[in-house]
Amino acid sequence: EKHPDLLPGEVEFCSANPILKYTQDDLSQRGVFGTLFCTNFRVTFISDEKPQEKTDKTFKNKLYGENDIPLMCVDHIYGVYDEKRKLITGGLVKNKYPSKMIIHCKDLRVFQFSLTFSKEEDAKKVICLTSGIKCLCMYFVSAEMQWKQETVMFDSPEDWTQEMKRTKANCRLVTENENFELSQRYFLQLLLAVECLINVTNPKLSIVLTVNSTFTLTSIFFSFFFRMINAVAHNHLYSVKTEDLSESLPNIQDIQQSYNKFKQFFLIENSTDFWLSDVKWFSSLESSGWLDIIRQCLQKAVEVVECLEKDNTNVLITEEEGTDLCCVISSLAQIMLDPYYRTLMGFQSLVQKEWVAGCHAFLDRCNHLHQKDKEYHSPVFLLFLECVWQLVHQHSPAFQFSETYLTVLSDSVHVPVFSTFLFNSSHHRESVMKAESPLAQSGPLSCPTVWDWSVQFDSKAQNFFFNPLYLEKVKHDRAVRKPHKPKHQRNLSLPSSAFKTPPKKGFFKDETDSLKKMLRVKRLSRWRGSPDAPAATTREFFESWQHRPLDYHGLLLPCLDGPAVHIWMQRYLRWIPEVYILGGGSVAVMTKLMELLSQVQDLKRVLEQRDSSQAAKLDHRPYFQHRLLSFDSSGRLSSSFPFAYTCYRSFKPIIPTGLMQSLMVTDSLASQEDEASSVVSFV
Prior knowledge:
Layout: E1 12-22, E2 31-39, E3 42-47, E4 68-70, E5 74-81, E6 84-88, E7 100-105, E8 110-114, H1 120-132, H2 157-167, E9 171-174, E10 190-193, E11 197-198, E12 208-212, H3 219-232, E13 240-244, H4 245-248, H5 252-263, H6 271-279, H7 281-288, H8 290-309, E14 314-319, H9 325-337, H10 344-356, H11 362-365, H12 380-394, H13 403-412, H14 426-433, H15 459-462, H16 509-519, E15 522-523, H17 524-527, H18 533-546, H19 569-573, H20 586-610, H21 612-615, H22 657-662, H23 667-682
Parallel strand pairs: 12-14, 13-14, 13-15
Antiparallel strand pairs: 1-2, 1-8, 2-3, 3-4, 5-6, 5-7, 7-8, 9-10, 10-11
C-alpha cells in the first residue's frame, strides 16, 4: 500500500482503501481508485494507478498538491445517503453510513469520494477525523531554524523607527503597552506623534486614525487619546473628521452571509450544476450582494482619501472592535495614497502593520477551529484582498505584485503552518509561541511567517508573484504639479447600499458612544452633507483625479461604477473546466506582452552596450525586471494557468437534457443550431 510523503512533524492518523475519487463528469460515476489518508495536517488521496509521465509543473506548492486538502482548508463535509446529501458536523456520522463523501474547500475546490468499496470502520475514521479535528497545526519548525525575512514585521521598536524614517513622521516610540498593560488587543509598541497616540503613519500631514474600543478605558488611555487629538488637530478639534464604520458599512455578520451566498456559485460538483447556475448567473451574483460590499468598502476608502488629499483634513475611523473594517479601510486608503504599499514588500509590511500587529482576529474570523458559533466568523481579510484585486485589475502598471500573488495569499490563510494567520492578537501569538513545543525539546515554538514564500514555492514559481507590466518609478522624475479643477455639478451618484446595519450589540457599545460624545468632533457623514452626498462628492473627486496627468506612483483611485467592479476570476473560476479557455485568457495576453517586453529590454541592452559609459548600469536594474515568466509551451495552457493543469470534465458545453426541457428548448431549435454549426464547419 502506498503512503504519502510526510512533512517533518506530520503524523498519519488513519487511512481507507479502496476509495473511488470521482472525476466530476456529469454524474458518470467515473473516477480513480486509491487510498484516502488523514494526517495532522491534511487529507490526501493517493491513486493506485501508475503515474503517467511526469511533467514538471512551473507552479507547484511544496506543502500540498492537487490531491491534498489542508485540514484548515476544509469548509464543509457532506455525506450522501440514498441520493440525499446531508451536512456532517462535529466529526459524527449519525446512524447510517454514507456511501459518498463530498468535501467543499475554502479555496473553492470540490472533492467527491465513493466509500462503498472500503471497510465501513476505516471510512468512518477518515470522515470523523476530517470533520472533527480542531486545526491540528503542524509545528514542524524547530527553534534553531532561522527564516529569511525581508518584510518589515512591526514587532520591534526598530521596525517602527524604520517606518517613521521612511514616512518622515514626527513621532517618538513609547512602550506603555509593551507588556499588554493597556490592552491585549492592540499594538505592542505605540507611536507618539508630537505627544499623541497614533497607529497609522502617512507621508502627508493628514493622518488616518483608528480607535479600538476594546482598550481598557483608563485615565492613562484618555490622557494619551486627548493628547493625540489635540496634537494632530493642532488644537483645532473640528479639523478631525470621524466615521463610525459600524453605522456606515455592513457588519461582519452581513459580510459572512453575503459571502456564503456568493461562494456557492463556484462550488461546482458536476457539469449539470454549472449549467444550472449559468442560466441565472447575473441575478444570482446581484442577489448575493458581495460585489456591492466590495464597492461600499472602496467608496468609503475613497471618502477617507478625499479628506486627506483634497481637504487636508485628518480622519478618525472607529468601530466596536476596531480590528475588522478599520483594518480594511485604513489599509485601502494607504494603498491609494502611498505607492510603497503597491510594491510586494510594501504590501506585505502593510498587512503586518494593520492586520497582524493591529490584532485582527484571524483565528475567529477565518474559523480555523471549525467552531459552531457563527457570530465571530467573517471573511474580512478576504474582503480586503478582493478590494485590492479591484485596484490591481483597474491599474495594473501601478502594482509590483500580480493577481496570482493575491490568489496564493488568500489560499495561504488556510494553511496551518504559518504564524501570520493563526492567532487573534499579538498577545495570543506570544502566549502560544512562548509555550514549550511538544516536538522540539530545545525551546519555544518557531513557525515561519507566510512571507517566507520559499516554504511553499521555489524561486521559479515565485516569479509569478511579480507583475511584469509594473511601471517602475523613474528616478529624478520631476513632480507633476496638480492642476486646479473647478468643482463639478453634483448630478451623479453611485447606487446606495442595500444593507441596513442592525443596532450594534456589545459590551463596549456604551463606552464607544461616550467616547464619541466626549470628543465632540464632527462625523464624516454629517460634515459631507446629506446621505447621498458622499457618493456624489466621491464621484466628483474621482472625475477631478481622472483629469490629472497619469501618474501610477501618485494618488490612485478606483472606478466604482457597477460594470467596473469585476469578479476575481482567477480565484473563483480556476477549478471550473467549463470556463477554461484553451490557449487563451489572461495567460495568452500576458505571454504576448512579456514577449514584447523582452524584445524591448533586448533592444535597450544593445543600445546601452554601444556606450561603454552606460554598460555598468546594466547590473543596477530593478530586481523585478529580471523576473520574466517562462510558460511551458509544450502543453496547452488554459485561462486557469498557473493553478489548474488537469481537466476532468469535457470542454464541450453540453447542456443536460433535463435542463434543456426546463428551459423549453425545442428539438427544432437544437437541430437548427446543429445545421448552422455544420455550415460553418463546411465553410
